[in-house]
Automatic annotation (TrEMBL):
Official protein name in the record: ATP-binding protein
Pfam families per the UniProt record, alphabetical: HATPase_c_5
MF terms in GO: ATP binding; identical protein binding
Transmembrane helix keyword on record: yes
Annotated ranges, domain Sensor histidine kinase NatK-like C-terminal: 522-620
InterPro entries: HATPase_C_sf, NatK-like_C
SUPFAM superfamilies given in the database record: ATPase domain of HSP90 chaperone/DNA topoisomerase II/histidine kinase
UniProt entry keywords in alphabetical sequence: ATP-binding, Membrane, Nucleotide-binding, Transmembrane, Transmembrane helix
CDD domains: HATPase_AgrC-ComD-like (cd16935)
Keyword Membrane: yes
Membrane-spanning intervals of the chain: 12-33, 188-208, 215-234, 246-269, 281-300, 306-326, 338-359, 379-402
């Protein structure tokens, strides 16, 4: 039954992870574009199809990209023929990311320049010196190409004035530009909005923990990570108001390290056994990474240290996983959520990687490849950093909400247990009053009984004396005992069961030897014993009156609480297709055995059920002195 329950839990977990992954994939797609602008910018060792040259008088002299890079105050030209394939991909514009004077020609016909009153033709251009005073601030230049550009020669004329360099040239379209702008904004706005919503939820969650009577200050770590990362994204958007100094707060520039390390510190605070060992392995790298990032914001040249600190992120994650697994093995409830969630996510990512390669265009396969390729380059692995922070943050939020739900359920369970204990106390008081009344009656009749017995004895009626004594004994046995054992919960439940058995005509006997305190939760002890005795009473009550009996045994041996109940039975014991015992009472019944089994396994035990022709026995041994937080 446990294996089937675990299988069901894993199926539900994978289903939930799949839904989350589907939502992330859906919104992630809004940050991508189906096609990209065509990059025609030359490199130092690659002309990218351009014919590069300059004119020395009437003589045309070729240039290499490196020579062009080093030219200064000299007009140079780049020419290439525009093909039909470019028109088929929807190219309608040419974009220049430019800070220098320039002019564009199509088949030697000027159709754009950023120099007023420019005259001349290719090979005889002269950019007036007075135009150099025009501040070229690096704005992007977008020029619409004539509709009949296919087969014509595109020529760019320019001059390096303020510094040497290579021109940045792109072929694009208005629609593609809009799509790229939208995707770029979505890459910032979607995560920023999601994190802002998460921050609001965390604020509400934190206040709820306070209302519940126990402030959970570790949630503030996640709240700080969410808020800082929200404004970190908005800061990168470049949206500034003249009178708004919010984005100038230095801490907002620390969004990257805080977003990664705050969830890791949150997990560290949830550790029990390995917290001290893991502390320096986490806190020292977190401190120095954040310090280096802050110094970088202040203009200190610490790029090498920042690069090195982020390269150590993978070993830090491996250590986190190792200690998380160790905590899970020690029954830490937080890591019993975190480790499976991490495992399920890894399986889903592998499935996405393989599925994209086999059944799609391979985009996600290439994306994941490029993400891990950053580990082997001389750049900071921003993609890995962002996804690491995002996943850790999601896992920690999930843990926070599950722990809140668990705490709420435990609170409700404790309320139910308290209500049950109150009911048991009320029943015990009622039975005590009833027994007191019966004892008072017997005490009142004792002298009368003695007189009758004395008279019968004087008359020599020994048989009548024996019958009379037997009747008095039977009447006294009908008075319920009020003290079964030292343990109050067991005492109350067994006394209540004795009353029910008495009313049902069941001979119930017991052998109970327990201390006053047991390291088992009251609610678990109540649920187990009440279900056990309810089932026994119901089964025995189905037999003829002279065949009804129950025997209960409870004692503690070697840190185990042994519980056994035997009862007479008749009829067939029903089982389902999986071999589990089911109730003969019909629908909405039969949960008693499952509840008992769950409680037994919670205390590292199981149920042993013996079914004989005339009797039914259930026994278990619950482990005492266990960590009460493990459930």
């Amino acid at each position: 039954m446990k294996k089937l329950s675990d299988k069901k839990n894993w199926i539900i977990s994978f289903l939930f992870a799949g839904i989350v992954l589907a939502f992330i994939t859906l919104f992630f797609n809004f940050t991508l574009i189906d096609s990209q602008m065509q990059i025609l910018s030359p490199y130092l060792d690659n002309t990218v199809g351009w014919d590069m040259y300059y004119y020395n008088g009437d003589e045309k002299t070729s240039l290499t990209p490196r020579e062009l890079f080093e030219t200064q105050n000299e007009v140079y030209y780049l020419s290439r023929t525009l093909s039909e394939s470019e028109q088929q991909t929807g190219i309608t514009t040419i974009k220049l990311n430019y800070t220098n004077p320039c002019a564009l020609f199509l088949d030697d016909v000027l159709f754009y320049t950023n120099i007023p009153n420019l005259t001349g033709e290719i090979g005889a251009l002269d950019f007036p010196q007075e135009t150099f005073a025009v501040p070229f601030a690096g704005e992007n230049i977008t020029v619409t190409l004539p509709p009949d550009y296919v087969g014509k020669v595109l020529t760019l004329a320019s001059m390096n004035v303020e510094y040497s360099g290579l021109p940045m040239i792109f072929l694009s379209s208005i629609a593609l530009d809009r799509t790229e702008v939208t995707a770029a904004v979505n890459r910032i706005i979607i995560p920023a909005a999601a994190l802002a919503i998460a921050a609001l939820l965390l604020i509400g969650l934190w206040f709820y923990t306070g209302i519940s009577g126990k402030w959970n200050f570790s949630i503030l770590l996640l709240l700080l990570a969410a808020l800082v990362q929200t404004f970190y994204y908005l800061r990168n958007l470049g949206y500034y108001l003249p009178n708004n100094q919010l984005f100038d707060i230095p801490m907002l520039g620390l969004g990257r390290p805080l977003f990664v390390y705050m969830p890791m510190i949150y997990l560290w605070l949830q550790m029990d056994k390995y917290r001290k060992i893991y502390a320096p392995l986490l806190l020292i790298p977190a401190f120095f990474t954040t310090l280096f990032e802050y110094l970088g914001l202040l203009g200190v040249d610490v790029w090498d240290l920042i690069y090195l600190s982020w390269k150590l992120l993978i070993p830090e994650l491996i250590l986190l996983i190792i200690f998380s697994v160790l905590e899970m093995r020690d029954e830490n409830s937080v890591f019993k959520i975190f480790v499976p969630a991490l495992s399920i996510t890894a399986v889903c990512v592998c499935g996405l990687y393989i599925g994209s390669a086999l059944f799609s265009d391979g985009f996600y396969t290439s994306y994941i490849n490029s993400m891990f390729a950053q580990l082997f380059t001389l750049i900071i692995p921003n993609i890995i950093i962002n996804w690491t922070g995002t996943l850790l943050f999601l896992f920690c939020m999930l843990i926070s909400f599950i722990e809140l739900i668990r705490r709420s359920i435990n609170f409700q369970t404790e309320i139910q247990a308290l209500s049950l204990k109150n009911q048991l106390a009320y029943d015990n008081l009622r039975l005590m009053n009833q027994s007191s009344e019966e004892l008072a009656k017997m005490r009142h009749n004792v002298l009368h009984h003695f007189n009758i017995l004395s008279d019968l004895n004087q008359q020599g009626e020994t048989l009548l004396v024996a019958d009379y004594l037997k009747q008095i004994t039977n009447d006294s046995e009908k008075i319920l005992p009020m003290r079964i054992c030292e343990q109050p919960i067991v005492n109350a439940i067994v006394v209540s069961a004795l009353e029910r058995a008495k009313k049902a005509g069941i001979d119930m006997t017991y052998q109970i030897n327990l201390p006053a305190e047991l390291s088992i939760k009251d609610v678990d002890l109540c649920n187990y014993l009440m279900n056990l005795l309810d089932n026994a009473i119901d089964a025995a009550a189905m037999l003829p009156i002279n065949q009804r009996w129950i025997k209960l045994t409870m004692h503690v041996r070697a840190n185990y609480l042994y519980i056994e109940a035997e009862n007479s039975r008749t009829g067939e014991v029903l089982h389902d297709a999986k071999g589990n015992i089911i109730s003969s009472k019909g629908k909405n019944h039969g949960y008693g055995m499952k509840t008992m089994l769950d409680i037994a396994r919670r205390y590292h035990s199981d149920l042993q059920v013996d079914i004989l022709p005339d009797r039914f026995a259930v026994q278990t041994a619950l482990l005492l002195l266990i960590d009460q937080n493990s459930d």
